[in-house]
Design brief:
Blueprint: E1 18-19, E2 25-26, H1 28-40, H2 46-51, H3 65-84, E3 89-95, H4 101-113, E4 117-124, H5 127-136, E5 146-152, E6 166-171, H6 184-194, E7 195-203, E8 220-226, E9 231-236, E10 241-245, H7 251-259, E11 262-270, H8 274-277, H9 291-305, H10 309-312, E12 317-324, H11 325-335
Parallel strand pairs: 3-4, 3-6, 4-5, 6-7
Antiparallel strand pairs: 1-2, 7-12, 8-9, 9-10, 11-12
């Protein structure tokens, strides 16, 4: 069930360091609080901006619609394969779940596929996002066999899940990029410890287009990313100032962090062309019917170039799909 009355509050302490423009240093806790504050203050519109209309989770019409559809195709295929193998129960974990949209998608689909037991947990650094996730997922608790919880927690903490207990672990979009690079080895090892099935993550590559995270980039007055310090500063049109740690990945680097603990099944760029060809209602005329041909051609181009290294690092997102070695070892032992 979704525990909406008792959401634990825990301080996020990642070891992230940086400095303000006036020269004084930022402690790890201060930097952590910066990130939590950004997503706590994001407002109710953030879920729509990040994942599309929360009331229609499978419409995939948000700012990252093309990437979302590609990610969902991977996740749905993993659920279908697991059910086809004879599994009647599934355990899901969403690390950095935000408003919980992806976990809700998985639960709804798993229930439709006939899983009789669905255990799912989402956690995030931002308490406001966890509160939104609980409210949005309230009706799922009435589904038979569903055990869903949301927590405020830190990606760098030890996970409460037992060894090799999770069938699908998610960590999507900006969650990993907010961590200090030196913590990624430990984080990947901990995720691998609990994941018997598949791990799916997306991050921003070094050649990606700018983002304002909680707002459309059109609402930005000033944006600067310091690649040496892995620190981003944004001034929004409404006067808000955001400064926080953020790391942009190369495809080779992302693979290296997780290949130590997982068998990487797939690594590719998402949205090389679609965002760059999207019309802007403030400037372009209404699209005509023949634009469907352009969309088909863009899709062909995406699939032609999305696994070529030089293009991957210029995509909007990098997608990594990996298989837990603990699960492989267990299955091999069972067959033997």
């Amino acid at each position: 069930m979704v525990d909406q009355d008792s959401i634990p509050s825990r301080k996020w302490a990642s070891g992230l360091t940086g400095s303000h423009g006036n020269g004084y240093s930022v402690s790890a806790d201060d930097a952590s609080d910066d990130i939590a504050d950004i997503y706590n203050q994001a407002g109710d519109d953030y879920a729509s901006y990040a994942d599309g209309d929360p009331s229609q989770p499978f419409s995939f019409d948000g700012a990252h619609a093309y990437a979302d559809r590609r990610v969902w195709a991977v996740l749905e295929a993993k659920l279908v394969d697991l059910r086809a193998s004879g599994a009647k129960s599934v355990r899901l974990l969403d690390a950095g779940c935000g408003p919980g949209t992806w976990l809700r998608r998985l639960i709804v689909r798993a229930h439709a596929l006939g899983f009789s037991s669905i255990t799912a947990r989402g956690f995030d650094i931002a308490q406001a996002q966890i509160q939104r996730a609980c409210l949005a997922a309230g009706n799922l608790s009435s589904l038979p066999g569903v055990n869903l919880t949301f927590d405020v927690a830190d990606l760098t903490d030890r996970l409460p899940e037992p060894d090799s207990s999770v069938d699908i672990t998610l960590c999507l979009y900006s969650a990993l990029s907010h961590l200090p690079v030196e913590r990624l080895t430990d984080v990947s090892a901990e995720i691998a410890r609990v994941t018997s099935g598949h791990f799916v993550t997306t991050v921003r590559p070094v050649g990606s287009t700018p983002t304002a995270f909680v707002e459309s980039v059109e609402n930005v007055r000033r944006l600067k990313h310091d690649h040496v310090k892995d620190r981003c500063e944004i001034d929004l049109g409404d006067g808000r100032h955001m400064a926080f740690g953020f790391h942009l990945f190369t495809a080779v680097e992302l693979r290296s962090h997780f290949a130590r603990h997982f068998d990487v099944e797939d690594l590719r760029g998402l949205d090389l062309f679609h965002n760059r060809f999207m019309p802007d209602a403030r400037w372009n005329p209404v699209s005509s019917a023949h634009d469907s041909h352009v969309a088909d051609e863009l899709d062909r181009l995406e699939r032609t170039y999305d696994a070529i290294l030089e293009f991957m690092d210029r995509a909007t997102h990098l997608l990594l799909v990996a298989r837990g070695r603990r699960g492989l070892t267990r299955e091999s032992s069972g067959r033997a």
